[in-house]
DNA sequence: CTAGGGTTAG
């Protein structure tokens, strides 16, 4: 037995586990008849070895398990762990159910593995079931399991439950805090994530580590809260967490997402540790979304020269750069060269190149690509094409794309509105009415967009037509003033297109209707001394706002930077950095 | 002893 344990130790030490040793063990157990011994822990170790083997030996592990006359909890857990890590975690959930149906005891480990699987397949129902199980057996006193549970809730989008678990946990440790901070950052509650990070620092029970700052930095990036991000960067340097590449990547990304491209590059350039693939990708993407196509492509090349092999994300970043800078032929060439470099294009690459061709007016080529890939499952490509159709006023192709989208069961208001607007541009009011009616029949939900602006270290959030801000009266007054000034400067023609397509009764307030306009107006009120204001939007900045902000920037002689989910827009002197965008 | 929290793309 002692001998066997030594052998086992050998098997799992330094990760280089050898099949030979495992086979030896296995043979020994079988010949001595110990394989069926319930109390023999090495058996489940062997099963676990096969279940987690990178050589895809899960089926073999399963077969071994079936040979056991009376499997123990550990044996069950070994298979469960393998299933949870496999490409089909659903099977882990099924396995867990089967385990409950039998008379087998499950322990904290069982719950932990099953929860891991739930997180991967976003199985809320099972999570609830396991949660009640955990409560019944008092496992919540276990910090590890509590954290897993919290994490699963956050990942399946049940942030409220995640917070509840955090509050009710008997024992918390640093991972519990980290899981909640990261969960909040991911779950559209970035400001709460930042608050929790501050609270953690203040309470001082746990010292924020690498993982903590990753969550907090992600939150700052989402919010565009560069002041808070700056403080975290200071903390990282003080605590020497910047020896970790992952942390550095997150810092670069945070600065890039906040619009501070120079700061991002500074960190990239002065990095103390070895740059990883992600480091390069993050920086290329930063240049790309900021509209500096040439620099992005240059860095992409440089990356290859530095001996770093580009992956799918690198190509996506490079394509994004071409897209933004209008480098159509470069983009197509890059796209075609992917296969030679051993990188298989995915939906995002197709989407990018379709967008690129579409914006350049090469609609037929774009359409051909969409047809060649889309197996009738991917809506994004057709939506992209539809957007391009609107840009070039191609009604026929727009109808084809719309029909496809409806066939696929699109419930996206944008798909309908786009077609409607296109008809409206040709004054085909009957068709407009038809589309609006279809929308009503299908009960298409409108997705409320929102924007953030950071003023004096405080983050303000605005929804469309939002009146919840304490200064809402002032903000709307400012919007009136903006409208008046724009007209006064003789841009009435420009604004008429802004007002186009809005119902008669809404025209009066058209300027107030978008969250980014509210944020810009608030910025103008609050930051009179600054030359530039920054707004962050969770969705794409719409064409109306793009036009209006261009005008505001000119009339008020200010630089206005708006970041949306797609890219940065720098408005200055009546122009935008992304000239090709509309 | 075995288990939990993590960077780019969306």
TrEMBL record:
Q: What is the lineage of its organism?
A: Eukaryota, Viridiplantae, Streptophyta, Embryophyta, Tracheophyta
Q: What is this protein called?
A: Pentatricopeptide repeat-containing protein
Query: Which species is this UniProt entry from?
Result: Citrus sinensis (Sweet orange)
């Amino acid at each position: 037995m002692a001998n066997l344990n030594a052998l086992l130790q050998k098997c799992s030490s330094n990760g280089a586990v050898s099949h030979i040793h495992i086979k030896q063990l296995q043979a020994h157990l079988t010949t001595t008849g110990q394989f069926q011994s319930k109390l023999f822990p090495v058996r489940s170790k062997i099963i676990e070895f096969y279940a987690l083997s990178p050589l895809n030996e899960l089926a073999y592990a399963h077969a071994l398990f079936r040979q056991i006359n009376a499997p123990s909890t550990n044996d069950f857990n070994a298979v469960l762990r393998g299933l949870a890590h496999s490409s089909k975690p659903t099977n882990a959930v099924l396995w867990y159910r089967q385990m409950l149906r039998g008379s087998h005891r499950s322990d904290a480990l069982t719950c932990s593995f099953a929860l891991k699987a739930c997180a991967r397949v976003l199985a809320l129902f099972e999570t609830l079931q396991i949660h009640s199980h955990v409560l019944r057996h008092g496992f919540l006193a276990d910090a590890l399991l509590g954290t897993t549970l919290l994490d699963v809730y956050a990942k399946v989008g049940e942030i409220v439950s995640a917070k509840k678990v955090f509050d009710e946990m008997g024992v918390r440790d640093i991972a519990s805090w980290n899981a909640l901070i990261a969960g909040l950052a991911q779950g559209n509650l970035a400001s709460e994530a930042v608050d929790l990070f501050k609270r953690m620092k203040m309470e001082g029970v746990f010292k924020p580590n690498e993982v903590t700052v990753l969550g907090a930095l992600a939150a700052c990036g989402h919010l565009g809260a560069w002041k808070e991000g700056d403080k975290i960067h200071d903390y990282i340097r003080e605590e020497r967490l910047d020896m970790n590449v992952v942390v550095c990547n997150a810092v670069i990304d945070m600065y890039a997402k906040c619009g501070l491209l120079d700061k991002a590059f500074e960190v990239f350039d002065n990095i103390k540790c070895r740059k990883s693939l992600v480091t390069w990708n993050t920086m290329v993407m930063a240049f790309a979304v900021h509209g500096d196509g040439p620099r992005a492509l240059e860095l992409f090349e440089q990356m290859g020269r530095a001996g770093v092999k580009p992956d799918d994300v690198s190509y996506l970043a490079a394509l994004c750069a071409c897209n933004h800078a209008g480098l159509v032929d470069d983009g197509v060439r890059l796209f075609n060269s992917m296969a030679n470099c051993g990188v298989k294009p995915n939906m995002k690459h197709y989407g990018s190149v379709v967008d690129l061709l579409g914006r350049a007016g090469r609609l037929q080529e774009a359409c051909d690509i969409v047809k060649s890939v889309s197996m009738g499952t991917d809506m994004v490509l057709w939506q992209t094409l539809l957007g391009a159709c609107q840009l070039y006023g191609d009604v026929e192709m727009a109808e084809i794309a719309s029909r496809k989208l409806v066939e696929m069961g699109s419930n996206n208001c944008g798909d309908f509105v786009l077609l409607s607007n296109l008809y409206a541009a040709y004054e085909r009011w009957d068709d407009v009415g038809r589309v609006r009616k279809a929308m009503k029949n299908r009960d298409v939900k409108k997705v409320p967009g929102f924007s953030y602006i950071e003023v004096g270290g405080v983050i303000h959030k605005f929804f469309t037509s939002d009146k919840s801000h304490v200064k809402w009266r002032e903000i709307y007054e400012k919007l009136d003033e903006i409208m008046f000034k724009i007209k006064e400067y003789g841009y009435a023609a420009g604004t008429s297109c802004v007002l186009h397509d809005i119902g008669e009764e809404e025209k009066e307030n058209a300027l107030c209707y978008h969250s980014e306009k509210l944020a810009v107006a608030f910025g103008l009120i609050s930051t009179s001394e600054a030359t530039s204001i920054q707004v962050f939007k969770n969705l794409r900045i719409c064409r109306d706002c793009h036009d209006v902000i261009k005008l505001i920037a000119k009339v008020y002689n200010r630089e206005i930077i708006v970041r949306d989910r797609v890219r940065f827009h720098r408005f200055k002197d009546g122009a935008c950095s992304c000239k090709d965008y509309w």
